[in-house]
Amino acid sequence: MNHSVKIAPSLLAADFANLQRDVARVEEGGAEYLHLDVMDGIFVPNISFGAGIISALRPHSKMFFDVHLMITEPIRYIDDFISAGADGITIHYESCENQEEVLRAIRSAGKKAAISIKPATPAFVLEPLLPYLDMILIMTVEPGFGGQKFMSETMANVEAAAQMIRDGGYSIALEVDGGISSANVAIPASRGANVIVAGSAVFKAQSPAQAISDIREEAERAYLLQAQERIKPFSLGENQQT
Ligand code: DX5
Ligand code: ZN
Fold it and tell me: Which of 200, 203, 212 is the pocket-test mutation for ligand 1 (most atoms within 8 Å of CB)?
């Protein structure tokens, strides 16, 4: 089924002693993406997992492997994550100076290239990189840990990124990550977010499948409504001069 919003459960909230089982659960529950948070203990104050875990899971899943690199100087490890089976790689704007080079390296391997900004980084810094991007990830918490509270002040970044993408006529997906559940997903989705990361809300739920479908329902409703409202003024001819 082709959904307008993709759901990306974050493996960080899975049971690390049962990764294969938990990955199968979210895949059966309808998730299109598996969000894989790689942390080096330097760019963020936490260490998660690396390419070895990703390559071990690769044969067990057909989901899009959405690798979120929270590591300094990501250029050093792009090849490793591609060999491990990443379908898309997100680097952090704040993690290096050579963002364009890294994005080009990801794309030249035939993978989707994305960049992420922390809550304090304004979205306009991404403007020069738009031609090299398949996705933008707006952090809705400080990167480093799962289970944090959604920061509504990051919605300014979602709005600005959505505007830049539209104004430039790009087809760039817009992902949000951190503290998202079915109770608040309408907030970013109503501003144009169409790839939704959810860790705790999915893996800590009684039924991950139910959580995925609840998040999707809320997100699609809000996303489709904002898309509709944006085209309305033109279809109604309100701007016509008489
Ligand atoms: C935080 C990670 C997130 C995290 C989200 O640095 O990038 O992907 O796993 O987890 P929840 O949804 O629990 O906030
Ligand atoms: Zn993440």
Answer: 200
In the DSSP assignment, the letter for residue 42 is: S
Q: Percentages helix, strand, coil for the chain, rounded to the nearest 5?
A: 45, 20, 35
Catalytic residue chosen out of the listed positions 22, 37, 40, 134: 37
* Torsion angle of C-alpha atoms 158, 164, 169, 174, degrees rounded to 10: -20
User: Are 218 and 186 a contacting pair, CB within 8 Å?
Assistant: yes
Digit-coded pLDDT (tens) for 27-73: 999 999 999 999 999 999 999 999 999 999 999 999 999 999 999 99
Q: For the chain, what is the domain count?
A: 1
Domain containing 214 equals 6-230
DSSP bridge partners of 65: 34
* 215, part of any domain: yes
Give the residue, out of 36, 137, 148, with the most ligand 1 atoms within 8 A of its beta carbon, to mutate for a pocket test.
148
- Dihedrals φ, ψ of 156, to 5°? -60, -40
**134 given a catalytic annotation:** no
156-209 pLDDT, tens digit each? 999 999 999 999 999 999 999 999 999 999 999 999 999 999 999 999 999 999
Q: Would you call 15 a catalytic residue per the annotation?
A: no
Q: Return the ∠ at Cα 147 (arms to 34 and 140), rounded to 5°.
A: 75
Ligand 1 touching residue 179 (CB < 6 A): yes
Tell me if 54 is assigned to some domain. Answer: yes
**What's the CATH number where 178 sits?**
3.20.20.70
Let me know if residue 239 belongs to a domain.
no
Q: Report if residue 72 sits inside a domain.
A: yes
Q: For ligand 1, is residue 9 a contact (CB within 6 Å)? A: no
